[in-house]
Every structure is written in structure tokens, then in C-alpha cells.
Amino acid sequence: MKDKLIIILGAVFGVVILIVLLLLLGGSKKTTCKLVSNQTKNGYSLETQYEIYSKNNIVNKVVIHETITSDSKDKLEKFEKDFNEQYETLKTNYGGYTYKVTNKNNKITTEVTINYGKFNMEKFIKNNEAMKQYTKKNKLTLEGAKDLYERSGAECK
Q1: Fewer Cβ within 10 Å of end Cβ, the chain: N or C?
Q2: Rounded to an integer, what distance in angstroms lies between the CA atom of residue 36 and that of residue 66?
Q3: DSSP calls for 80-123
Q4: Structure confidence by residue, pLDDT tens digits, 4-34
Q5: Considering Cα of 139, then 142, then 146, then 149, what sign does the dihedral take?
């Protein structure tokens, strides 16, 4: 009798944990896209990973991890400056951006999060009309995000 009670309590506990996890994660789906570009002629290599989080085919967040490697200090400083300016402009104009750009050990690394709940997609589409094809009711779709990244050469899974 005691063993059956322990089994039942264990099963109930497992179901409760599963429900809590589903509520916390909100049924969110993660899709990963990766781009590797060896630009040796231009003096650098680039690796980018896009983590697309979506629910019901609507993207709610993208996390971008990017690494640029080069032996050229000048080239790395230019990338660092350009990334900081680009992300700050996007953050200021549309909201939803958090980012960190680091220049260390012949590498630029960026960690960018785009929170589409705080991003002004309507304003972004007004300024970038081509983006409309990747959205539904001013929301970025999962297929739209994958298409954008694949057009830049990334592979999505």
C-alpha cells in the first residue's frame, strides 16, 4: 500500500513539474540558424548563431551570438564601432534590443537579444517596407525569420 502511494505521489509530482515547466516556457519553440563565413580575402572570419523563440508561428524573441575573428586590430576596432552604433540605433529607434559587444583576443563577440514584445514592428515596417512580407499583423513570423536568415546564407534547423 505504501509503495503504491509513493508511486502515485511521484506521478502527481511529475505531472505538476511538467505543467509548471509548460507555463514557464509558455509553449515556446526554439529554432536555431547558423551562418559561417570565411572571409580570408577580407581578413576575417564570421560565425553567427540565431536562436529564434516563437509561439504559434509568431517570433517573440531572437538571441544572436556572433563571433568575428581577425588578426587586424584596425578591422576589429571598426567592427566593434559599427556594431555598437548599429545596435544602439536600432534600440533607440525601435526598442526591444539589448546587446553587448566585446573586443578581446583577436575576436569581436556580440550577444544581442531582440524582444519582439517591446520592439516597434509597425514603425520598423514603415521604415523598411520589404519587411512586411515576413510578418503577419505586424508580428514577425517564424517562417519570415527563417527566410531572412537563410537569405543571408544561414542554415536553419
Answers
A1: N
A2: 10
A3: HHHHHHHHHHHHHHH--EEEEEEEETTEEEEEEEEETTTS-HHH
A4: 444 444 344 433 343 433 444 457 899 999 9
A5: positive
Domain residue spans of the chain: 27-156
Instruction: Give kind and range of the element (H or E) at residue 128.
Output: none
- pTM for the model stands at 0.81
Stretch 124-149: mean pLDDT, rounded?
96
In whole angstroms, give the CA distance from residue 32 to residue 59.
13
- Report strand pairing: 107-115 vs 139-140: unpaired
Match 511529475 to its residue by C-alpha cell.
14
Q: 27-156 has which CATH code? A: 3.30.1830
Task: Kindly list the distances between the CA atom of residue 69 and the CA atoms of 142, 152, 153, in Å, as whole numbers in the listed order.
Answer: 30, 19, 18
